[in-house]
Amino acid sequence: MSAAIETVDVSVSLGGAEVVRDVSLAVERGEWLALIGPNGAGKTTTLRALAGLVPYEGSITIDGRPLATMTRRDAAKLLAVVPQAPQTPNDLTVTEYVLLGRTAHIGYFSSESRRDRRAADRAMTRLGVRQFAERSLGSLSGGELQRVVLARALAQEAPILLLDEPTSALDLGRQQLVLELVDELRRDHALTVVAAMHDLSLAGQYADRLVLLDRGAVVGEGSAEHVLTEERLGAFYGAAVHVLRENGNVYVLPRRRAR
Amino acid sequence: MVHARGIPSIWLAGALAFLVGAMLLGLATGPVSIGTWAIVQSALAHVPLLDVRSHLSSVDSAIVWQVRAPEVVLAALVGGMLAIAGSAYQGVFRNPLADPYLLGVAAGAGLGATLAIAYITSGSSLLLPVAAFAGAIVGVALAYSLGRSVGGVLGTGTLLLAGVTVAAFMTAVQTFVQQQHSDTLREVYSWILGGFGSATWHDVLLVLPYITISSIVILLHRRVLDVLSVGDEEASALGLHVRRTRLVIVVAATAGTAAAVAVSGLIGFVGIIVPHTVRLLVSHSYRAVVPLSLLVGGGFLVIADLLARTVMSPAELPIGVITAFFGAPFFAVVLRTMRS
């Protein structure tokens, strides 16, 4: 069986600068892969390339099919994207917004069927936002909004979920809530998750495998145990950290340099 | 199970009633007073299988059906078209102030039509919409590419400034052509001021196919316009071919606007006033905004035309003056609420 995602030597140039260089990855079905790396390492651009949203060189296959030959509709049936800062028009209701996730399943000129509305209903119930169904997006808090955006992605019923820093706007407790939720969704719906993640300790705890990017290239890959070392984080993040290993978990703590 | 709001049926009924009421008022108002009920009876008498007899004299009947009706119907068609086109432009450019008038579409259509009047001898009325359409497409394409080249077509200000710039330039060219052809000056000038005073059934038939097709295409895209509201990249990730979709909608809205402008002249602000009123009263979802704008826009322009005919009676005020009189303050209000 083919991998969920396979990339060979993928490079992306934006505005004349090569921001992703020769990235080769294989993501297994049901796996959670975290993309980590300092600001500007190319995490977001890699995700956008995986979703077919930026022109790229090299090859990307999704479910064994070349992404380059897919229509937008076909790609959206396989890949659901949660951007870092999603556009959430204040005046749409939660239901209307979640139903947008069904776009790839609805005929161009048609409106949603019972099946689409049921899928939206399920996704909203699953993410605990069903009671907000008639509320406008503008009236929701940051945490509620994040769950609504995830509900839209789930309603898409795509087997692969691409998340760009899904917790960057949330407080500590809500970060954990959202990541637990993503992990549950992954298990219940056999989803493959590729997430750009900012917090290394959380990345190490939730992801099966980490890929460390620096200046667009893969510079480290493997388990948290293997990737998250003081030397590596010092070299690529320019950070002074203390890495704590406890019960098979890896915690990355910032440490002020001795003066 | 969850539902999208769509159009609440009470608002749909209300918008229809507004349109029909405005049209009846338009038919009943004029120097010769003819009762509304008599007009309704006369209209129903035209419906087969209904046993209703008209009580209008043949003169009154001619006034209602040959003089007033084409004017009222044309105003309704043009108003509906300008409003639905406004909502479509606002959706594809994600800009609440986009309007055929401010995007250079109307000025382009005006230039195209003036060139047709000036350089193609009479009997060109069939060519007028085509010339207006060509000018309108050039207008919107220039505005869009100018806005894009300075960055940020999807920002509120840039696209409109580009549109105003393009409109100013095209209006200048148009005035130049107009002055050069002083023989047609009067015809062009009265056309530019806008109005339906001399409308005939021939005008109605001329624009009907353009406006019908354009409106149907935009109506079919009402759900897609909601998808576009999350931005190009997310819409694309949701499975929409964004560039092609935008092109189809812009071409449809522009064709319809050009046809409307060709028979009515330059009438501004309808494309802003009507969709925004619908948003304020009903919903921001294009599923409601698009169809309701079509109906309310029709009724709105019939009433504006009525005011244009009666305010300074027996003289007729250009209808563009009426719409600008209400539209400009409205525009200011929208601008303010956007900034807050």
Structure report:
Chain A has 259 residues and is α/β, with parallel strands linked by helices. Chain A has 9 helices and 12 strands. Chain A has helices at 43-50, 72-78, 94-100, 114-126, 142-155, 172-189, 200-206, 224-227, 230-237, and strands at residues 5-14, 17-27, 32-36, 57-62, 65-66, 79-82, 160-164, 192-196, 209-214, 217-222, 241-246, 249-254. In chain A, the strands form 3 sheets. In chain A, strands 6-7-8-3-9-10 form a 6-stranded mixed β-sheet, sandwiched between helices. A 4-stranded antiparallel β-sheet of chain A has the order 2-1-4-5, with helices on one face. In chain A, strands 11-12 form a two-stranded antiparallel ribbon. The mean pLDDT of chain A is 92. By secondary structure, chain B is mainly alpha-helical. Chain B has one domain: ABC transporter involved in vitamin B12 uptake, BtuC. Chain B contains 14 helices and no strands. Chain B has helices at residues 9-28, 36-45, 58-92, 105-119, 127-149, 156-180, 182-193, 201-220, 222-228, 232-237, 242-264, 270-281, 286-310, 319-339. The mean pLDDT of chain B is 85. The A-B interface holds A 48, 51, 53, 71-73, 75-77, 79-81, 83, 86-89, 91-93, 95-96, 98-101, 103-104, 106, 108-109, 111-112, 114, 117-118, 120-121, 124, 130, 133, 156 and B 1-6, 220-221, 223-224, 226-227, 229-231, 233-242, 279, 283-285, 287.
Brief synopsis:
The complex is a heterodimer of chains A (259) and B (340). Chain A is built from 9 helices and 12 strands. Chain A has 259 residues and is α/β, with parallel strands linked by helices.
